[in-house]
Amino acid sequence: MQWPRLIFLLGSTALILTTDGIVYVRTKNERGPTAIQAGINCLELLTGAYFYPTESVQIQNIVVFHLHNLSSPSREIELGFLQNHHTGYHEDLDGQKTQHFQLKMMSDKLPRSSIRQQAFIDYKLIDYYVIVVDEFEKLERAMSYISLAYAFNPRGKYVVLYNNPNNRDLDDRFALEALNFMFIKHHSVNVLVAFAIDMMSYAVHTGDPYHGTRMDCGRMKTLKIATVQNGTFRNEALAMEMIRMSKVPPEMESCTFLFCTREAAPFINAGCETGLEIQIMHLLQESMKFNVNVSCSTMERGELEDDGVTWSDLLGLMRNDECDLIAGAFYPDYDVHADFAATTLYLQDYYTWFVQTAGLQSRWKVLLDIFEISTWELFALVLFVCSLTWFLLGTALPELRPHKCFSTCILNTWCVFLGISTNNRPNSNSLRIFFVALALYSINVTTIYTSQLINVFTSPPREHQIDTIEEILNMTTPIGGRMEYEDWFENADEDDLRVSARYSNSDEFQPSEANMRAVAKGRRVILASRAYVRNSHYYGEVHGLTKDVFATQIEMIMEKGFPLLPKFNRIISNLNDMGITGKLFQDFIFNVTILHKIHDIISPDEDDDLELPPNEIVLTLDHMQSAFSTFMMGIVVSCVAYVIHLAETDPLSIVVTPSCRPSGVGEIRWTVVFNETEILGTYNALNHSSFELSCATRGIYHVWVESKGCTAEIYYNTRSLVDLWPMLNRTLSPIKIHQHPRRQQFLVKWEKSKFDIHAMHYCLVVSRDRPQRTLCQALANSAFGSRCGMSTFEILQRMSVEEEKKIPQDVQTTIACTSSRTKQMIKGLKPNTTYFLEVFAIHTHKQNLSYLLGATMIHVNRTRPTQLIEGKLAIGKLSTLGGLALFSFKIPKKSPKNTTLKLMVTPCIGTVNVEIFRKKRQAIKPIIDVYYPRVITIEHAVPGERYQIQITEADEHYRTNRIQIVASTKDEFLNMPQLPDNTTVVEVTQLRTCHATTIAWYSSPDKRKIRYCTYIFKQHTKHQHYSNVKMPSYCELENRDIYQHPQLQQTHCIFSDQANHTEPVPMSMSISNLAPAHYYLIFVTASLGGSGGSLPYRSARVKTHPYCRESAQQPSGKSQQLRTGPFAKKQQQQPRGHLKGGASSHHKPLPQERRNNRLKRNRDEEEDQR
């Protein structure tokens, strides 16, 4: 079989077959009906799949943009799509559900400026867009028209069909370029791009900018989601899923948006880290899991420039893609909403004019404004009527002369009005009733005035406060605010036009601390938010007009295509419905402001100083300055009058001395009257016999004495003490008090009088109730006050002079006269009582001349003993209480009945006496002359009872500074070793050489392991008893500084286990490397193997031989022979020696009695050793 041959010729070449007949074949027509119908079918398929309606009560609309210079077949595809939708479809489309849309047309026939100048402008946002282009520049041209419309919706859905027969291979490049253009330039992400890859097929692309990692979030990524072949999808299920996929994920953890904020407290606080809007943004972030980079600035929101396209400030930054959204207390604005989108409204704010707070009224006005002027006039009338009534009643009744003087009646009435005591009180009953009625009326008036004065202090009145815009416009103070606030005054209202003419939006009128300080000083008037002022430091310092200028809610602004805007609005609406935004605002009003104020009080900022005048401070006594000024003026005038009157006065002293005793007559009354009108005083001569006036007015003074069966002598003096004694110095001299607690005595010393020393005697007055200002007062309050008929000098002369004066407990005032001595010992003072001491100087050559030389006050404290603890060492200072130390120890209640109390008393140096009391009775016989460590035993101690140990110095001339004491109810001290009964350390004189000696002592009966230490101190060869080098005491042996002592020669420590010994055994120690003919002081201490404290034996004082034998030469080098241990058994008796202990060798010689006692003790101890 032979196949026919086919020849294909391009162009119009014919196909020649071997058979009969000719067939002509033409190339595909890219612009023919088939290609056009394929494009129309593609548009129908994509719009039907992508433009599905949402649940809405309104019909959604579709805009088809027509470009006039489209090439074929794009022009035919667009017209065919319009024709299908213009003519409509049949009702029955094979059972498919129909969709209703509103079809709109846009064209580029007219210039772009006509978009917003048309007679009819549609503001409803477009839902769907269909754009057919044949090149990318025409897409840019179409979008330039679409974006200018008020109904432009970047979040709408776009279908862009590209068909250009000359470009079939660059679908990926065109799709990326178109999607980037729609995303970056117009913030649209819901875009489908259909690219004609041949006459019948289209590649469908979309963009995905928000899915991905942190590195590529916000970058457009193209996705090829479907291929349309002649109006059908190759994979319909996958294509439909990809087309309807959401471009914005529910959570965007990988995306970060630029959040530009403006400082506008309290919505955006300073630093843009806190604020109400910041809190709302945090709530949005928690819901959608996205991130923001907050940019803080003080820029304005921004306004549209004159070109009608460019925006300034923050809106300009957002238009230039430097910000994704902005916030800062922005209220809705029609011009802004035309080009930008905004969130649902939230929160709210009120704006008004803020002016300077009116100052406080003048202080004198405040005191007068409590009552009205008519009330003060009525008070003055009542004062005059009452004064006149007082005068008339006093004239008609038998009253004293002051009640018959009209000026005195006015003064008395005024005093009653003020609620103070009057100098002249009525005697007749009629005038007394009038006086009481006037006093009750005055108390009522004073109470009302005082209560009103409290109200003035809490709410001080101020001057007239500017509170209307008319008053502000009548002022010359400049006014202004933010730039966006000026739009509210651009209308036909007359007052708003006046405000707009003077309105300034410069930096001086922006809400800030510095500008609010200027408002507080009255330099400018600012239109600001009430919430901002409430949050600032000047809340309460500036006044906001009562009437608000405008009130508005707050919103965030972003581009219309911001992907999170629908979710933002849904979340904010939920927050508003649930009351969360309202709760945030209420928390700010009632909590945040208060906390901020507290923070300012605790940590004030120096830059926020108000610099207000002092009279602006509320609730201080400055408001009473006028009253105090009047008071000070009165004091000055009275002082001047007193100085003038002083030249006309003289001192006056009157003394009435009766000649009988108090038992002989009941009462002797005497009265002093001035000029027969004014009674200066009435007294009883038996208990008050003197009357004194330091500045007596010149006139006649009458002394009336009323007595039966008793005569009285009257003495008077009109000369001043300065005249009698020109050199008198009234300066008080200091009084020194030395306390002796052991004897409960006080030594009081004072200085001699500076004048007339030879003629001065002294008396010490001790009182408990009050200080005595004069000697006469002291005598009257003492036991000598009942002696009538005796002068003061005579009483003082009869007083005996005592070196020690005992103060009776039942007498309030005691007088001790010391003649010319300037010291007095007093005793018997009651503990826990305060005493007043006064020293009076008495002139022996001038009668009744005495004055106060000095005064002081003392409080006698009870000496409290130191509490001792079982087995714990306590140290007491005898110098604190003047040679006395008190200790107290309580026997435990759970102790057995036959408990023995042991006390180890160690005088550090010197000799002490020990007394032990139980219930203020001596428990044992006092122990005298304790000069070495001694154990005191109290048999049959009572459980639960407290024993008081009183330790005193045995010799006042030999001071004992400190003592050590340990108390225990057990057989052994807890942390102390048990010492033997004989604690003497002796020298074995038979073994003494020029370089060595041997000492011996009894070991401790304690069964525990004992550590013995010896300390050897070298004494001076000459005058050993008076060496200037201080020898250590018993208490200093445990001090670390003992090893730095300049006289310390050697220290040795040994251990001895006494487990095998039931009784103390002798111990010995040989000490070598000593210097010939020298004295050494040796201490021996015992301790429990290094744990706890140590107890000392008696000290020993030894002397080496002055001459050395040849066999007893000192060992060469540093060799040392030290022999320790008990004596050998061949020794049948204790080694002889002399007891050297007690004080160190540098102390002063003791008195004869002390020396005899010491010699007696030495003889007794030598007999015991034998």
From TrEMBL:
Signal peptide bounds: 1-21
Originating species: Culex pipiens pipiens (Northern house mosquito)
In its UniProt entry, what is this protein called? Uncharacterized protein
One Pfam annotation reads NDNF
Which intervals hold domain Protein NDNF C-terminal?
943-1108
- What is its subcellular localisation? Secreted
Tell me which PANTHER family the record gives: NEURON-DERIVED NEUROTROPHIC FACTOR, PROTEIN NDNF
> Which keywords appear in this protein's UniProt record, sorted alphabetically?
Glycoprotein, Membrane, Repeat, Secreted, Signal, Transmembrane, Transmembrane helix
Q: Where is the composition biased (Polar residues)?
A: 1111-1123
- SUPFAM superfamilies registered for this protein in UniProt: Periplasmic binding protein-like II (SSF53850)
Taken from the UniProt entry, a GO cellular component term is: extracellular region
Q: Where is this region: Disordered?
A: 1106-1170
Bilayer-crossing residues are 373-393, 433-457
- Residue ranges occupied by any Neuron-derived neurotrophic factor first Fn(III) domain in the UniProt entry: 747-859
